[in-house]
Amino acid sequence: MDRIASVRPDRPSGFSRASRFFALVGIGALLPLAALAQSADSYPNRPVKMLIPYAPGGATDIIARHLSPKLQEVLGQPFVVDNRAGASGNIALEAAAKAAPDGYTLLVGNVSTNAINESTFAAVLQTRPSRDLVGISKLVEIPHVVVAAPSFPPNSVAEMIEWAKRNPGKLNYASAGLGTYPQLDMLRLLKAAGIEATHIPYKGGAAQMLPALMTGEVQVAFINLASTIEQVKAGRLKVLATTMPTRRHQRLAGTVRTGGNAEAHRRQVVRGGCSRAVAT
């Protein structure tokens, strides 16, 4: 416990204060692993691989890269971040499920990889997270925002809906792939508003979505706040709506809630069959 208490977050300039908070939450949630290492000294005794289902730069990657050095500091072995982007997260999901059940391959997934994909890709996905993987810890909950480039005329969801009705067929939106939560959240909004929009998926997740949004290649997206907060603060993106219960940043002060309760959950999982002592 003292080893955990002595850990302090690094402050790399590229990461937001919110992201540092998320990393500490993850460390606290993994206290059972630290206790196991101190009592038995049996795990880990070699490097641990952390599979990330998206390209570098998104919230899942950011959180994993905050956790990695802290876990190494506490547990004494490297936790190596391995990005396996593509197929809406299913490439990393399959890799985690096929790994040896020894606790040395972890998946830092989100609600898409851990829950949604099992139903959306049921006909083609060989892995079922509910059957083949074991949850270790819920790491973080991140509020969602609807963002757009500053050049996009609407400044709110209500204005976006009116704009789409006046310009049928011209609205488009980004997502991290078919069946991912940015797509499903937007589909829910479009249905409620009675409008249509063209879906533009980016297999690299936020790392590809953000440049596309900032350059106007795509107009809007549902995305998590951790991936976008620095761009919002710099004025390179604007927020049309948020699921945050309070407006914690001045650039969110004028936004409205979407009426939903969507949040991005990150959870760490391990291959099914892993020793219960290691997994817990």
Strand and helix map with partners:
Layout: H1 2-5, H2 17-29, H3 31-40, E1 48-52, H4 59-75, E2 79-83, H5 90-98, E3 105-110, H6 111-120, H7 129-132, E4 133-148, H8 157-166, E5 172-175, H9 181-193, E6 198-201, H10 206-215, E7 220-224, H11 225-233, E8 238-242, E9 256-257, E10 263-271, H12 276-279
Parallel strand pairs: 1-2, 1-3, 5-6, 5-7, 8-9
Antiparallel strand pairs: 3-10, 4-7, 4-8, 4-10
Helix pairs in contact: 2-4
Question: What does this protein look like?
Answer:
The chain has 280 residues and is an alpha/beta fold. The protein has 2 domains: 2-142 and 265-279, D-Maltodextrin-Binding Protein, domain 2; 144-263, 3-Layer(aba) Sandwich (D-Maltodextrin-Binding Protein, domain 2), CATH 3.40.190. The chain has helices spanning 2-5, 17-29, 31-40, 59-75, 90-98, 111-120, 129-132, 157-166, 181-193, 206-215, 225-233, 276-279, and strands at residues 48-52, 79-83, 105-110, 133-148, 172-175, 198-201, 220-224, 238-242, 256-257, 263-271. Strands 1, 2, 3, 4, 5, 6, 7, 8, 9 and 10 form a 10-stranded mixed sheet that branches. α9 (181-193) links the parallel β5 (172-175) and β6. α2 (17-29) crosses α4 (59-75). The radius of gyration is 19 Å and the shape is globular.
